[in-house]
Amino acid sequence: MSNLNSFKAFTKGKNSPKGQKDSNRIVVYTRVSTKEQAETNQSLSTQKKYCDAYALDHGLEVAAYFGGTYESAKTDERKEFNRMLAFVKSSKEQISKILVYSPDRFSRSGANAIYISQQLRENGIDILSVTQQTDTRTSSGKFHQNMQFLFSQWDNDQRREKSISGTIEKLRRGEWPTKAPLGYNQSKLKGEQVIVVNDTGKLLKKAFTMKAEQHLSNVEILEWLNKMGLSLTKQRLSEIFKNPFYCGVITHAMLGDEVVQGKHEKLVSEKVFLQVNNLQKKNNHGYTQSKYDARLPLRSHLKCATCGTNMTGYEVKSKGILYYKCNKVGCKVNKNAEQLHTAYHSLLNSFAIDERLVAPLKQQLVATLNSLNEQKAEDAKQLKATLRGIQNKLDAMEERFVMGEITKAQFEKFSQKLIIEKQQIEASLGGDPKKLSNLEKYVAFSLKMCSEMAKMWVLGDYHTKQKLQKLVFPEGVAYDKENDDYRTEKINSVLSLIASLSTPYGDKNKRPTNLKVDRSVLVAGTRLELATFGL
After folding, report:
1. Residue 43: pLDDT above 50?
2. Residue 192 has what pLDDT?
3. What is the reported pTM?
4. Percent composition of the chain: helix, strand, coil (DSSP 3-state, to 5)
5. What is the pLDDT of residues 275-298, one digit of tens each?
6. Tens-place pLDDT, residues 93-126
7. What is the DSSP letter of 179?
8. Which residue blocks in 23-110 are alpha helix, DSSP H?
9. CATH number of 12-161
């Protein structure tokens, strides 16, 4: 009979990767569930003491300690807990057990604890409790430990319900259970909570008054607060104005729709609070504003050259005057709308072409645009060839993955690079236009439009003005307060080309001196969208 000892290397018992590890090396995990226990350190020291004694009695060697600090019992997404799990799973020390004082010290999350313990057992690691010893190698032992985890979760849920009930009762008594908002000091006096207005609160009180009585804009109030040493954002100021705590009223998510009169000191009266919020609903800046006001066509098209922020339009009703204003805090660009409209009309009128130049310009434009069309067609041809090559590589790589020649990780790693490159090329080809069937017709319209743009803008309705503005200056225009003039960096390619070709022959004084013409953007795909005006 052959010697069977030679086959022991092939067995699947305790020495296999997922069998019980034959090691006496363990880690100790301690945890407390309340901050007070962490600060006194009593519970932690007791847990560690009993764990060390147990390890000594059973001949176990402690390889590392984890926990030993305050942790939340609500979830197992704890840094220290996860650090311990990573250590025991990847450690070369062959850790066989995690030793805890009791099952609820390991976890109080029930089903999640059961899952984690199962994953650990599959890696040959048991959870061992000092106070409730269970042999998890048996089905009854596993069941018993799982019941302990579930009971811990039930106990945790019970505590949470009691805590929520206590918090709700405090709120209904008019007591604030957490940190008081900005502007208040919080303390205890003879066991009672005391919340009083501090120096910051006095500044906020003034902010409420400025809004309610003077109808100042939030921007103006923020500037004043900043001068007084209190720096706030627009969003934070709006949140303060909307918080009823400042008028002595308590609202909270745990109360639902219930409103309670608080015991804390009021910052402002309920009347002032409601006045401020009524103004906030109308407009945060204290002046009337309509998104589609035909009298303010440059809104969202006009930018501040100083800071790059979009300028808004508004009306001062008491004077009946329209303005455009930059709303960035600290940037005080504010300009009469009528003056800006006059300047914009002059800007559009600067594109007008001398009638003597129309014929030669038309001939030159047709030739230039035909040349650009041909160049772009050649570029598109090369890009499409590159695209086909990328697709062939992706198809070949997918075939290799299906055949098992490369792993899923390798396929995803290398295919992702090709997919990104493919998407970039497709995006550049996406706007590839069809060649115009009658280029001369469109060039003639463009030249005529250049001479009539200013007139079209003046006579057009709000939406016509918006379309024309976007067509001529796709990225808008910027108002330069210092020079009291417009900056126009980006212009429609066809109009930019017309300007560059006609300037040497026309009256240079009529041309905008700050127009920057970039011939590299004059591609066939960018042209006057005639359909915009019904052509």
Report:
1. yes
2. 81
3. 0.36
4. 55, 15, 35
5. 998 888 765 444 444 456 778 999
6. 678 888 888 776 676 554 556 667 776 777 778 8
7. P
8. 35-40, 42-57, 79-90, 103-106
9. 3.40.50.1390
Q: Does residue 197 sit in helix, strand or coil?
A: strand
Tell me the C-alpha distance between 330 and 219, whole Å. 8
Q: Cα(25)–Cα(150) distance, rounded to whole angstroms?
A: 28
Fold adopted by 184-282: Hect, E3 ligase catalytic domain fold (3.90.1750)
- Token duo for residue 236: 């934070």
pLDDT for 247: 92
Instruction: Name residue 167's amino acid.
Output: T
Query: What type of residue is 408?
Result: K
Q: Please, where in the chain does CATH 3.90.1750.20 lie? A: 184-282
Q: Per the structure block, which two tokens stand in for 262?
A: 């608080």
Over residues 427-446, mean pLDDT: 65
pLDDT tens digits for 140-179? 655 555 555 555 555 555 565 566 677 788 888 888 888 8
Degrees to nearest 5, angle at CA 73 with 70 and 76 = 100
**Structure tokens that stand for 192 in this block:** 């009672």
Instruction: Give CA separation, 144 vs 38, 134, 159, 419, in Å.
Output: 29, 7, 23, 52
Mean pLDDT of the chain: 75
CA–CA distance, 278 with 215 (Å, rounded to integer): 11
The secondary element (H helix, E strand) that includes residue 220 is helix 218-227
Q: Is 280 left (phi over 0), alpha (psi -120 to 50) or beta?
A: alpha
104 contact partners, CB below 8 Å, separation of at least 6: 148, 152, 155, 156
Judging by beta carbons within 10 Å of its beta carbon (0-12, 13-18, 19+), is residue 486 exposed, middle or buried? buried
